[in-house]
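Key result, reporting period 2: structure in, sequence out.
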C-alpha cells in the first residue's frame, strides 16, 4: 500500500543518514535520535536523493509526496505525454491519407478528357458541350474509384438545368469538380496549421499560413521581403475582423473555406490577369493601406494619435466620434497601432457589413446599454454641429435628425435602436455615416450621397454542404 511504501522508504533513508553520519565521525547517531533531529536528517538526505525537488519540511514531504507512490506519478506523466504524441501522429496520418484521396492535376485532366469523349451530342450553337445521365455513368465507371465520391448521382441532378434533353453542361461539371478538389486541398492545408486540433486557427496560425502562401502567389512576386510582415498583418486582419467578430481569438476553418477570401487569394495566383485594385490581399491594396498609415503618422512613432487620425479621408470625421473611437478600441498609451488602424479601415470601407456595424455600434452605444438612444444621437449631433458650423453650414434641428434616424432604423422599441435593428433595417451604413462624418451627412442632406467605396464584402454565407475531413 501507499502507507507501507512510505514507511519503507523513510526507514531506508534513515539508514542511509545514519551510515553517512557515522562515516563522518558522528557516532552519536547510534543513540536514540530525537524527533527534531530525525526530521532534520531525513529532510537533508531526502533532498539530496530527490535532487532538491521539494523545499519543504520533512513532515510536508512525507505526507504529500511520499504518500503517493512515485511510480504512479511517473506513469501518469508518461501516459499524458504518450497520449499527446499519439493524437499528433494520428492527425498527421489522417491528413496524409486525405491528401492521397484528393485528385491531382493529371487526374483532373483525365476527367476532363472523359467528359469530352463521352459527351452527348449535339453541342449547342455556341459550342457548349453537354452530357446525359447514361453517358455520365460511363464517365464515373471509367474515372475509377478515387472519383466516386465526387462523381455521384446526386451531383448530376444538382447541376441539371432546363435542357430539353435532360443534359448537364460538361463545363459546369468540370468546374464543380475542380472547385471542390481545390477546397478540399485547402482544407487539408489549413489543418496542418491547426495545432490544437479543434478545427480552428489562432491569429498566429493564420500568420504562419499566409507567410508560407506568399511564394505561391504570382502577383506578389515583386513584393519586397522586408515588407512581408506588414503584408501578413494586413491579410490576417481581414480574416480576424470578419470571421471572429466576437473576438474569441480563434477563426474556424469552415468559415474560412465558405468565405470569399480564398477566391481573392486565388486571383493572385493567375499569371495572365492583374488583380482588382479593390482586392484586399493584393500588393497594391496593402501598400496603399500602409502608405496611408505612414502619411497620417506625422511624428513617425509608429502610432496614430487622435489628432493624426482626424486627417483620415477627407478629414471630416467629428471630434465626438474620434473621442469615442479611442475610448473603445485598444490603444497603446492613448494611440492607435497598425492593427487597430486596419480594423478601423475595414469598418469604414465595408460599412454595410454586419461586422462593421457591430464595430460602430460599440462606439455609438455611449452608455453601454446595448442600444443607441436619444442621448446617443444628441451626443454625436453636437460633434456634427460643431464640424458643420466650422465650415459655415447651419446644421438641421436635432428633433428632425432624431426622427429621420429612428424612421430609417425602424426599431422594435421606438426609443432604442439595437444592433439587430441597425442590421435588419438595411440603412445601418447610412445611419452610421451621418452620425460620424460631416461630409457624408451633408451629402445625405443634399441627396447627392453616393455609396461608400468598398474593398470587398463581408464573408459569404456558409453553404449547407460541410467540408468535413
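The corresponding designed sequence is given below.
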Amino acid at each position: 500500500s501507499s502507507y507501507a511504501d512510505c514507511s519503507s522508504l523513510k526507514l531506508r533513508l534513515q539508514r542511509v543518514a545514519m551510515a553517512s553520519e557515522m562515516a563522518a565521525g558522528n557516532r552519536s547517531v547510534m543513540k536514540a535520535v530525537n524527533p527534531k533531529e530525525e526530521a532534520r536528517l531525513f529532510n537533508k538526505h531526502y533532498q539530496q536523493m530527490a535532487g532538491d525537488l521539494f523545499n519543504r519540511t520533512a513532515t510536508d514531504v512525507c505526507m504529500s509526496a511520499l504518500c503517493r507512490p512515485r511510480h504512479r506519478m511517473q506513469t501518469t506523466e508518461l501516459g499524458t505525454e504518450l497520449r499527446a504524441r499519439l493524437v499528433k501522429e494520428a492527425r498527421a496520418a489522417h491528413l496524409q491519407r486525405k491528401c492521397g484521396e484528393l485528385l491531382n492535376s493529371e487526374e483532373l485532366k483525365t476527367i476532363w478528357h472523359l467528359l469530352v469523349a463521352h459527351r452527348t451530342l449535339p453541342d449547342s450553337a455556341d459550342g457548349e458541350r453537354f452530357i446525359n445521365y447514361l453517358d455520365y455513368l460511363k464517365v464515373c465507371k471509367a474515372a475509377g474509384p478515387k472519383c466516386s465520391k465526387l462523381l455521384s448521382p446526386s451531383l448530376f441532378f444538382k447541376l441539371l438545368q432546363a435542357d430539353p434533353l435532360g443534359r448537364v453542361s460538361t463545363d459546369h461539371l468540370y468546374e464543380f469538380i475542380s472547385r471542390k478538389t481545390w477546397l478540399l486541398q485547402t482544407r487539408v492545408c489549413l489543418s496542418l496549421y491547426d495545432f490544437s486540433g479543434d478545427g480552428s486557427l489562432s491569429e498566429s496560425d493564420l500568420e504562419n499560413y499566409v507567410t508560407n502562401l506568399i511564394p505561391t502567389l504570382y502577383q506578389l512576386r515583386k513584393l519586397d521581403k522586408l515588407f512581408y510582415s506588414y503584408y501578413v498583418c494586413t491579410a490576417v486582419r481581414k480574416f480576424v475582423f470578419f470571421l471572429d467578430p466576437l473576438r474569441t481569438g480563434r477563426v474556424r476553418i469552415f468559415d474560412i473555406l465558405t468565405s470569399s477570401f480564398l477566391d481573392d487569394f486565388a486571383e493572385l495566383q493567375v499569371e495572365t490577369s492583374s488583380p482588382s485594385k479593390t482586392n484586399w490581399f493584393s500588393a497594391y491594396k496593402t501598400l496603399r493601406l500602409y502608405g496611408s498609415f505612414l502619411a497620417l503618422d506625422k511624428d513617425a512613432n509608429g502610432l496614430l494619435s487622435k489628432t493624426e487620425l482626424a486627417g483620415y479621408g477627407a478629414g471630416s470625421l467629428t471630434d465626438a466620434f474620434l473621442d469615442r473611437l479611442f475610448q473603445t478600441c485598444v490603444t497603446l498609451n492613448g494611440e492607435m497601432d497598425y492593427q487597430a488602424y486596419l480594423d478601423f479601415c475595414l469598418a469604414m470601407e465595408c460599412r454595410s457589413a454586419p461586422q462593421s456595424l457591430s464595430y460602430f455600434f460599440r462606439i455609438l452605444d455611449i452608455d453601454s446599454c446595448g442600444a443607441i438612444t436619444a442621448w446617443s444621437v444628441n451626443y454625436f449631433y453636437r460633434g456634427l454641429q460643431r464640424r458643420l458650423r466650422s465650415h459655415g453650414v447651419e446644421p438641421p434641428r436635432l428633433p428632425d435628425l432624431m426622427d429621420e434616424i429612428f424612421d430609417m432604423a425602424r426599431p422594435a422599441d421606438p426609443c432604442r435602436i439595437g444592433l439587430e435593428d441597425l442590421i435588419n433595417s438595411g440603412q445601418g451604413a447610412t445611419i452610421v455615416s451621418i452620425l460620424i462624418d460631416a461630409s457624408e451627412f451633408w451629402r445625405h442632406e443634399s441627396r447627392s450621397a453616393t455609396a461608400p467605396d468598398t474593398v470587398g464584402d463581408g464573408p459569404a454565407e456558409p453553404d449547407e454542404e460541410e467540408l468535413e475531413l
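The first strand starts at residue 130 and ends at 131. The chain is about 60% helix and 0% strand. This case is discussed further under Risks and Mitigation.
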